Description:
35% of the residues lie in helices and 26% in strands. It has 159 residues and is α+β, with helices and mostly antiparallel strands. The chain has a single domain (11-157), classed as Beta-Lactamase (2-Layer Sandwich). A 6-stranded antiparallel sheet has the order 3-2-1-6-5-4, with helices on both faces. One of its GO terms (molecular function) is L-methionine-(R)-S-oxide reductase activity. This is GAF domain-containing protein.
Amino acid sequence: MFQTAMYTGTKTENYELVIKQLRALLEGESSQIANLSNASALLNQFLDRVNWVGFYLTEEDELVLGPFQGLPACVRIPFGRGVCGTAASEQKTQRIADVHSFPGHIACDAASQSEIVVPLLKDGQIIGVLDIDSPEKDRFDETDEKMLEAFVAVLIEFL
């Protein structure tokens, strides 16, 4: 499942280790850009079978591209459009097994087949989303969803 040999536990244990690493990376740093950049790099290094890991940040009624790892991406996504815009407007994680079956999917990378998007909620307000794409269908499961939500909860503490 994971690219690096240091992740030898169960899937949940490996995520827990990455969440500890995230906390260590962010401790004492107040720059949102630096923290989001390190968070996307950490996840990109940790997860296998993904082709894009990054953030979109809220500006008025749309999401604007933030720090990411991967190919160039769509810059602006209106709330309610595509997987990211739906996650933002519904303030609910979207785990999509086949992006081509998602109504209104925005294809930034034609290689993407599945996607998970976790909203970033701070004080009840949507401040952005974590977006992860995979070139495989049905790449993300319930464990990924639960643990990425836990990852985001730690990240929010530092934003």
